[in-house]
Amino acid sequence: MNCEDVQKKIVLFNELLEEEKREVWEHLKVCESCRRFFEEEQKLRELLKSVRVEKKVEKLSWRRIAITAAAVMAILLSVILMTPKNVPREVIYFQQKGAIVEIFIDGGVK
Ligand SMILES: [Zn+2]
After folding, report:
1. What is the SS3 assignment for 95?
2. CA pair distance 25, 10, nearest whole angstrom
3. Nearest-angstrom CA–CA distance, 22 and 16
4. 32 CA distance to ligand 1 centroid (A)?
């Protein structure tokens, strides 16, 4: 097996047969440049793992934001629908998971 073959197999290392893995290991013992390639590949894999974890965390917080936004919209809508048109502009405070949100009867959320 030449270096090019070994490096191709290193990229697919997790999918290799046991025998192929053994061949790669044997080559790594005697070849400095492939060993370095292998180490780089491992680092890259670790990096990809950590990126995936970050994405999961991001997803969760976005979902929380969406739920909060939906709750705010629902309350805002019911306030608008239940408020007669001649009522002067008022500010309603309510607490949503610890954050104070101001709702103006005539429209926007601040
Ligand atoms: Zn090599």
Report:
1. strand
2. 10
3. 10
4. 7
Ligand 1 centre distance from Cα of residue 12 (Å): 16
Distance 9 CA to ligand 1 centre (A): 11
Alpha-carbon distance of 105 to 99, in angstroms, equals 19
Q: Is the pLDDT of residue 37 over 60?
A: yes
Distance 18 CA to ligand 1 centre (A): 19
In tens, the pLDDT along 41-91 reads: 988 888 877 776 666 666 667 777 788 888 888 888 877 777 665 555 554
CA angle (23, 29, 31) in 5-degree steps: 95
Q: How many Å apart are CA 41 and CA 23, to the nearest integer?
A: 17
Rounded to whole angstroms, the Cα distance separating 102 from 90 reads 10
Cα(25) to centroid(ligand 1), Å: 10
